[in-house]
Structure formats: structure tokens, C-alpha cells
Amino acid sequence: MTQLTWHTYSQSSNRFSDIELDWLFNQGSLTERLIQLSQNAFSLEIVSETLQMLRQDEYNYLNISSLQKQWVREVILKGNDIPWVYARSIILCNKNNQSNMNALTNIGTKSLGSILFEQDCFNRSEIEVTQYPIKLLPFQQFCDNLWARRSRFYNDTYMVVVQEIFLPHFWQTIQSTK
Ligand SMILES: C=C(O[C@@H]1C=C(C(=O)O)C=C[C@H]1O)C(=O)O
């Protein structure tokens, strides 16, 4: 089983340049920033949306039993049709009615962020980072040593874990727009 070790800003900030810190630890909507960076040439491709068993580090982060499947949404965020971010989000709803769950799981290519950042309905935990194992990526995005970040969005109805892995073309774009 792949074990990931996540690090907080204070544990890891000396490993990054200022521009990497800005993108990895910014608490605002990543979607909004990518829309600006792409000058509105932003798109979102759904990789998968399934009920599935999680990784142990995900169960631990959620502090839930590792015997239950959870709803997982995986997407690629693109600028000018180029893959910039692979995101893996886990959505839990503590009120077992389907309409609440549908509100976050039935959104198609609408950005999850457009809901999570709507009207300050969610709290967000501290952002943590890790180097994401290549075998956990979709095979089209295979690349070693990519930096990933995670955080929890929560309110009295939902717990949403968002994991965002920054792909090589993203960093190349950032370097070229400096
Ligand atoms: C949390 C956000 O939502 C983004 C959109 C996602 C989606 O639509 O699945 C997943 C991760 C995020 O990069 C954000 O925009 O900050």
C-alpha cells in the first residue's frame, strides 16, 4: 500500500521558491486562478466519478473507517487544452439524503470549486503538500516527483477532501509567464 507523508507550510516552505509557495499554499479558488492564468481558456475534463475504496492516508485524513467505499471525483484542469492539474476529490455527506449528495456529486464539468467557494459556505483546513507517487496518477499524466496539495472543505453537511497535483505543463506555463 502506498504511504504518503504530507507536510504543512511551516514544515516545508524552505523547499520551494516564492512562486511555488504562492501556487501550492494559496487558500483561494484554484479554478479562479487557472481561469485568469489561461485568460478564460480554462476547461475541465472528468477522468472518473465512482464509489471506491480509498487509500489508507485518505481514510486517516478523514478519520473514518477504512472499510467503507466513498465517492471520488477525478478531473484534469486545463488551460488552452493543456493539462495543468490533476485533482482527486472525496465527497462525504453526513446527512444521508441523496439530494444533498447530488448537489456535490452531480455537477458534471462545473468546477467543484465554484460550489465550495460560493458564499463562504465552507471552512477550509490548512493546506499540506507531498510528492505524489507516479503510480497514483492517471497513466496519461505519468510523471515522477510532482508536487501535490490537499485540504479539507467542511461545513455541517459535507466533508470534501481536495487533492490537487500540479502537472509539468503547469509549471512550464508559470515559468514562461514570469
Ligand atoms: C477546490 C477547487 O475546485 C477545483 C475543481 C475540482 C473539480 O471540479 O473536481 C477539483 C479540485 C479543484 O482544483 C478550487 O477551484 O479551488
From TrEMBL:
InterPro entries the record matches: Chorismate--pyruvate_lyase (IPR007440), Chorismate_lyase_/UTRA_dom_sf (IPR028978)
Residues annotated to bind substrate: R73, L112, E164
EC number: 4.1.3.40
Pfam families per UniProt: Chor_lyase
GO molecular function: chorismate lyase activity
Principal cellular location given in the protein's record: cytoplasm
Taxonomic superkingdom: Bacteria
Compartment(s) of residence: Cytoplasm
Keywords for this protein: Cytoplasm, Lyase, Pyruvate, Ubiquinone biosynthesis
Catalytic activity: chorismate = 4-hydroxybenzoate + pyruvate
Top enzyme category: lyase
Protein task: Removes the pyruvyl group from chorismate, with concomitant aromatization of the ring, to provide 4-hydroxybenzoate (4HB) for the ubiquinone pathway.
Family listed: Belongs to the UbiC family.
Name of the protein in question: Probable chorismate pyruvate-lyase
